[in-house]
Amino acid sequence: MKELDLKKTIDLLKTIMEFELAGVVRYTHYSLMVTGPNRIPIVNFFKTQATESLTHAQQVGEILTGLEGHPTLRIAPIEETYKHAVGDILAESLNHEKKALELYKDLLETVDNASIYLEEFARTMIGTEELHTIELKKMLRDFS
C-alpha cells in the first residue's frame, strides 16, 4: 500500500463538505420554490435530498476531523438562476449531483491503495451519487 497523501485528502474532504452543505441550502431552496400539480412529491424529494446532503456533510466532517483536519465554516458557491420551473430545478440538481460525483471520484483516486476505509467510503458515496443522477435523469425525461 502507498502512503496516504494527508494534505490532499484533507483539502478534498473540506471541499466535499462545503459542497454537501451547499446542497442542503440548494435543495431546501428548491423545496420552497416548487409549484404546480405535482408539488407535494417533488417537495418531498427535495427535502429528502437536503437531509441527505446534511448527512453526507456530517459523515465527511467526521472523517475530516478524524484525520486531524479542520472543517471550514463556508459552503460552496451557489448560483441563483431565478428559474424555478420544475424542469429547470431538476436540471440544476442533475448538474449539482454530477459535480458531487466528480468530487467523490477525486477522493477515490486520492486515497486509492492508501486507505481501505476511505476507498470504501468514496465508493459508497460514488454509488449514491450515481443513483441520484439516474433518478434525476428519469425525472427529467418528461421535460425534454
Automatic annotation (TrEMBL):
Classify the source by domain of life: Bacteria
**Segments forming domain Ferritin-like diiron:** 3-144
Instruction: List GO BP terms, alphabetically.
Output: intracellular iron ion homeostasis
Name the keywords, alphabetized: Iron, Iron storage
Q: Name one GO molecular function term.
A: heme binding
Gene Ontology CC: cytosol
Write down what this protein is called. Bacterioferritin
Biological source species: Planktothricoides sp. SpSt-374
